[in-house]
C-alpha cells in the first residue's frame, strides 16, 4: 500500500506515493489537466486521462507510458460512473482522482441562462461529486486515497459577469471541505488547489457572450499550467486542505501563509 503515516489518521502526517500508483485526471486534454497528467506520468504514475476530446486523449496517451484514455463528458453522470468503472477494471485499483475539468461562463446576473447555469454547475460541482462518489468505495477498500479538486481564486472574489462560475467554485469549496472531514476516517484525503489566472485554453472555452468578461488573451500572461500541476503533486504528497497559487489568494481565503 502506498500510504505511510503516523497511524493516527492525521492528514499532515500522511504521504502518498505517486510511482506505480493509479490516478484519474479529468479535463486532461488541455491546460492544467494535461500538465498534471504529464507530471504524474513523469513521476512513474499510471494515469487515466479523461475528457470529451477522444483524439487529443489518444495522442496524449501515446506519450504517457501505462496511461489510459477515457472519453467522457463530466456532465453525463452515468458516463462518469462508467468511466471510473472502466479505469478500475483496467488497473485493478484507483489511488488518486484529480477533479480538474471545468469551464467558465461570462454573463451578468440579469443575463444568466438557466440551461448554461445548469451546465456549469453540472461540470464544476456535480460532476466532481459524482466522480468522488465513484472512487470513494474503491479507495476505502484499498485503505486510502487522494482526491484533489481544482478550485479557483474566484471562489473568494466578486467579479461582475462571473457570478455563475465563482458561485460554482464556492460550492465546490464547501463540498470539498465537508468530504475531507467525512473521509478522514477512511484515510482518503481531499485537497483543493486554487489557481490564479493560468495560461490555458480556459478563456477561449468560456461560455456566454464573447464580449462579456475578461478578454481571453489576458490568460496568456498568467501562470504556467506546469506550475499548477506542481501544486497538485504537492497536494497528493502532503495532503493539506488547500493550496494557493499566490499569497494574494491565500489572504483572500483568510488562510495563514
Ligand atoms: N486557467 C485559469 O486561469 C484558471 C484559473 C482558476 C481555475 N481554473 C480551473 O482549472 C481547471 C482546468 O482549466 P484549464 O485552465 O486547464 O482550462 P482548459 O485549457 O480549457 O481545459 C479544460 C479541460 O476541461 C475539459 N472539459 C471541459 N468540459 C468538459 C466536460 N463536459 N466533460 C469532460 N471534460 C471537460 C476540457 O476537455 P474537452 O473539451 O476535451 O472535454 C479540457 O481538458 C478548471 O476547473 C478551471 O475552473 C483555471
Tell me the fraction of residues in β-strands, as a range. Answer: 15-25%
Q: Characterize the biggest β-sheet.
A: 7 strands, parallel
Q: Please compute the radius of gyration using only Cα atoms.
A: 17 Å
CATH domain class name: Alpha Beta
Question: How are the strands of the biggest sheet laid out side by side?
Answer: 5-4-3-6-8-9-11
DSSP helical segment count:
7
What does it look like?
The chain has one domain: NAD(P)-binding Rossmann-like Domain (Rossmann fold), CATH 3.40.50. The two termini are about 30 Å apart. The protein has seven helices and eleven strands. α1 (about 30-40) packs across α6. By secondary structure, the chain is of the alpha/beta class. It has a seven-stranded parallel β-sheet with strand order 5-4-3-6-8-9-11, with helices on both faces. A two-stranded antiparallel sheet has the order 1-2. Helices cover about 40% and strands about 15% of the residues. β8 (about 145-150), α5 and β9 (about 190-195) form a beta-alpha-beta unit. Bound molecules: NADP nicotinamide-adenine-dinucleotide phosphate (NAP). NADP nicotinamide-adenine-dinucleotide phosphate binds near residues 29 and 222. The site of NADP nicotinamide-adenine-dinucleotide phosphate (NAP) has 30 residues, from α1.
